[in-house]
């Protein structure tokens, strides 16, 4: 497990070409707001969608360089930019290397009298080549016919977001659930492989990789994120 404090563009430039099995990135979503919680905060404001996409494109190009031929990218975003991000990924990876548009359906959150409630994020899955690694994850079947059995996961992942009482919550804004990262890391990287999270925040991907027996590199510009990630990785508490 390695953790770097800095702009991921700079750190990615120092990594060897074709050295990473899986890059999962959960960058700022361009919400136009500062994201804060009791254990950290980060800015999420760009002057325009164009400048946000320019920022992301440079970093996705740098990720493409460091992925192995069997490697893949999982890019986490939401309704604000997903339509632009998919086209950008088509440009960088080639539309033929699109694998899935995953929907993370998280359940929690408010409602609106003016629209259908927004209850999902988007995760785009692209392989660097057709030889990308994939081991289909198994999830509990929900149909009455298959009750009590397991089945291959679909592209809709039903995993609750962290509620205020969740024991794994570390107080870093927009922290993602460990269950989501464990499913993605085990499905999209081989045992012992190298997982990269260039926007690691509280280090959820690194904890998932550690538990799944993968090596992991996390990068974040925010010193608070690096502190929280390091504490989480060295925690002697039962895994969360
Ligand atoms: C959505 S959060 C990641 C949350 C993380 N997935 C978790 O579970 O805690 C996005 C992170 O990107 C970081 N960030 C923003 N710009 C960055 C850059 N250029 N390089 C590296 N990290 C950056 C922010 O500091 C923030 O921690």
Describe the structure.
The chain has 240 residues and is of the alpha/beta class. It has one domain: Rossmann fold (3-Layer(aba) Sandwich). 28% of the residues lie in helices and 28% in strands. It is built from 6 helices and 12 strands. An 8-stranded mixed β-sheet has the order 1-12-11-2-5-7-6-10, with helices on both faces. It has a two-stranded antiparallel ribbon with strand order 3-4. Strands 8-9 form a two-stranded antiparallel ribbon. β3 and β4 form a beta hairpin. α1 runs parallel beside α2, α2 (49-66) runs parallel beside α3 (82-93) and α4 crosses α5. Bound molecules: S-adenosylmethionine. S-adenosylmethionine (SAM) is lined by residues 7-8, 26-28, 42, 172, 174-176, 198-199, 201-202, 204, 219-222, 225.
How much is the average pLDDT?
95
The percent range for helix content is 25-40%
**Which molecules are bound in this entry?**
S-adenosylmethionine
DSSP summary, beta strand count: 12
CATH architecture: 3-Layer(aba) Sandwich
What is the assigned CATH homologous superfamily?
A: Vaccinia Virus protein VP39
**Gyration radius, in Å:** 17 Å
Shape: globular
Main sheet record: 8 strands, mixed
Measure the end-to-end span. 17 Å
Compressed to H and E, one letter per element, the order equals EHEEEHEHEEEEEHEHEH
Number of helices: 6
**Helix vs. strand class:** alpha/beta
Spatial arrangement of strands, main beta sheet: 1-12-11-2-5-7-6-10
CATH class: Alpha Beta
Short description:
It is globular and about 50 Å long. The chain has one domain: Vaccinia Virus protein VP39 (Rossmann fold, 3-Layer(aba) Sandwich).
């Amino acid at each position: 497990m390695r953790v770097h404090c800095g702009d991921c563009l700079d750190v990615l430039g120092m990594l060897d070409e074709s050295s990473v099995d899986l890059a999962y990135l959960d960058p700022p979503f361009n919400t136009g707001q500062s994201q804060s919680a009791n254990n950290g905060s980060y800015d999420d404001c760009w002057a325009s969608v164009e400048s946000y996409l320019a920022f992301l494109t440079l970093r996705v190009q740098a990720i493409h360089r460091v992925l192995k031929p069997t490697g893949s990218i999982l890019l986490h975003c939401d309704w604000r930019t997903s339509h632009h991000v998919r086209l950008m990924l088509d440009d960088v990876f080639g539309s033929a290397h699109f694998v899935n548009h995953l929907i993370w359906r998280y359940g929690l959150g408010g409602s609106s009298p003016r629209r259908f409630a927004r209850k999902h994020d988007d995760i785009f899955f692209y392989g660097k080549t057709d030889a990308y690694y994939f081991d289909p994850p198994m999830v509990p079947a929900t149909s009455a016919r298959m009750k009590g059995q397991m089945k291959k996961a679909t592209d809709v992942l039903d995993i609750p977001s962290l509620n205020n009482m969740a024991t794994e919550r570390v107080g870093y804004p927009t922290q993602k659930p460990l269950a989501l990262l464990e499913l993605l890391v085990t499905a999209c990287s081989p045992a012992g492989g190298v997982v990269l999270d260039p926007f690691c925040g509280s280090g959820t991907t690194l904890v998932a990789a550690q538990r799944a027996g993968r090596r992991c590199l996390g990068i974040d510009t925010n010193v608070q994120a690096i502190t929280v990630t390091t504490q989480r990785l060295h925690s002697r508490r039962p895994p969360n």
